[in-house]
Specification:
The chain is of the alpha/beta class. Helices cover about 45% and strands about 15% of the residues. It folds into two domains: about 180 residues, 2-enoyl-CoA Hydratase, Chain A, domain 1, CATH 3.90.226.10; about 45 residues, Lyase 2-enoyl-coa Hydratase, Chain  A, domain 2 (Orthogonal Bundle). Helix 1 links the parallel strand 1 and strand 2.
């Protein structure tokens, strides 16, 4: 599934309507067994997402997370979607836009993208996971970004390991789709297990070990495990069943 933020006139800023739409799309992806990877990108060449729409916030609009769609959006921010999610940032990702990228498992950036957490400049704090930036990059750099509100460029993000690839603007989506195709060619049950375990190991290693013990018999005893072994022996592409 390719998911496009489509408010280019407002730098794809997040409104309650957009947040609910993203959550609805993610729920649809999770319920569809044929959706193996989701790619999230933006429309236009100015920004991937400028974060929360401050006009909507100033008008007192409810940002829309206290419902099923909003809760699905929150799970996306926490990296808890069942399938891998790839962020294809066609431009800058600031505040909630960077938090949206942090919810993605792989990140592809346009060469001109800027990434930042400027909330403190508006008397706010990163409320959608930006304070966990230190789980993806060195904590000192995460603190610098969050405390000063200053941005880093795409090259610096790649250097820090936050981005998987930095490419020209026109290559952002094709590069993300190439990653998606590589992932989708693998056993879907194993992919989902690996996504959960790798993310969990970063924040809670003991629990990750417990979950690994639960995943091992499920994956190694699956039809896909047998199919993968037979396909290797028979020198043919596997036909995955997802179970």
């Amino acid at each position: 599934m390719i998911l496009r933020l489509n408010r280019p006139e407002a730098r794809n800023a997040l409104t309650p309507v957009l947040i609910r739409a993203i959550g609805a799309a993610m729920m649809e992806a999770e319920s569809d067994e044929s959706t193996l990877v989701v790619v999230v990108t933006g429309t236009g060449d100015r920004a991937f997402c400028a974060g929360m729409d401050l006009r909507a916030f100033a008008d007192g609009q409810d940002m829309g997370i206290d419902n099923d769609f909003g809760r699905a959006y929150s799970r996306l921010l926490r990296g808890e979607m069942a399938m891998p999610v790839i962020g294809a940032a066609n431009g800058s990702a600031l505040a909630g836009g960077l938090e949206l990228l942090l919810g993605c498992d792989l990140i592809v950036l346009s060469e001109g993208a800027q990434l930042g957490l400027p909330e403190v400049k508006r008397g706010l704090i990163p409320g959608g996971g930006g304070t966990f930036l230190g789980t993806r990059i060195p904590v000192g750099i995460a603190l610098e970004m969050a405390l000063t509100g200053q941005s880093i460029d795409a090259a610096r993000a790649k250097e820090l390991g936050l981005a998987n690839a930095v490419v020209p603007h026109d290559s952002v989506l094709p590069t993300a789709l190439a990653y998606a195709e590589q992932i989708a060619a693998n056993g879907p049950l194993g992919v989902r297990a690996v996504k959960e375990l790798v993310r969990l190991a970063v924040v809670d290693a003991p629990v990750a070990w417990q979950r690994l013990e639960e995943w091992l018999p499920r994956v190694f005893g699956s039809e896909d495990a047998r199919e993968g072994a037979m396909a290797f022996v028979e020198k043919r592409p596997p036909s995955w069943l997802g179970r």
